[in-house]
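FIELD: query
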Amino acid sequence: MKCRHCHRDLSLQLVDLGSAPPSNAYLTAAALAAPEKWYPLRVLVCDGCWLAQTEDFAGAHELFAADYAYFSSFSASWLEHSRRYVDAVIERFALSPQSHVVEVAANDGYLLQYVKARGVSCLGIEPTASTAEAARAKGLPIIEEFFGRELAARLHFEGRSADLMIANNVLAHVPDINDFVSGFAELLKPQGVVTFEFPSLVRLIEGCQFDTIYHEHFSYLSLTAAECVLAANGLRLFDVEELPTHGGSLRLFAERADTGAHDVTERLAAARDRERAAGVESAAFYTGFQARTEAMKDGFLGFLLDARRDGVVVAGYGAAAKGNTLLNYAGVRPDLVRFVVDRNPAKQGRFLPGSRIPVVAEEELRKVRPGYIVIFPWNLRDELIAQLGYAREWGARFVTAVPALEVR
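FIELD: result
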């Protein structure tokens, strides 16, 4: 395999998680009688541009199908995160009703609803029909296509260039990262700004957050790798913020390399230095991750086996893609985790891919009263434990497996 960005041959392995089905390919009851598609799940690192990436097996159209079940608005903390972002960028970049904002991967309108509420013109680009429909229901204009240079050129020709472009948690999801990023340089106005937000590869490795690896993520990005990709595709990085979301994320601020005029911030220079000191541009930084991942998987599986031996019912909360990586890597089935609760109606009544654990509504928790509740979206642990505080009434304890096994 060659690097998706610089086309160098890949040989440095970060981790091999065996195989798994697409993490958001939730099953209907009828589908349980049919086989599932499983793909190898291995991440390689380019020793030229340092982009970490999965092997090529599943295509974007298969992973982001019409019934895509991830809706951003079901997380109150993510909504608040998005609202604060909108307020900050409107002030920082002096956006007005005459400005135009374009969000790529607008999902269900979780963020653009706040842009619209501030009276700023906006457009969402979202290829999955299910979430695009939800965004339109909020009164947001949505183009239901995958983003790239061709779509950007068409929008530019139609006079819909952007003062601000937003790409949250999507840069890692695109198979052709060069075509995707060059589209931003095409659609930005001469003095426009784009922000990219994505989980940090450095935080992933330091915290052994292996469950954030799944087929929908084609790339795993450090600041070092992301800046290399942006620079090669017409964008100049001028600022970065380090965020707590998703176990540690980066928010990059970039402009067109040919016309932008923002000064490079001190915190960008400091972030570059930190990654360099951590050894991101050396093979040694990526070795040892496999062994740590295996130890974490073994610890979680041992905990579930002990609970079953002791007759304690275990349930899960949050039918998250990261949870599916963990469950399938550990070989967990409904005999160890009886069901998973999720508030998203699109997931209820379905079954997790691979493990085939049923997804149910929250009422099932009160009915069954499990002794342990595993929080799979561990990045939302505090929010969810507070939300489920009533389970303490029957003595339930909350469990997270990543970044370390913890029982509360």
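FIELD: remark
The two ends are 43 Å apart (CA to CA).
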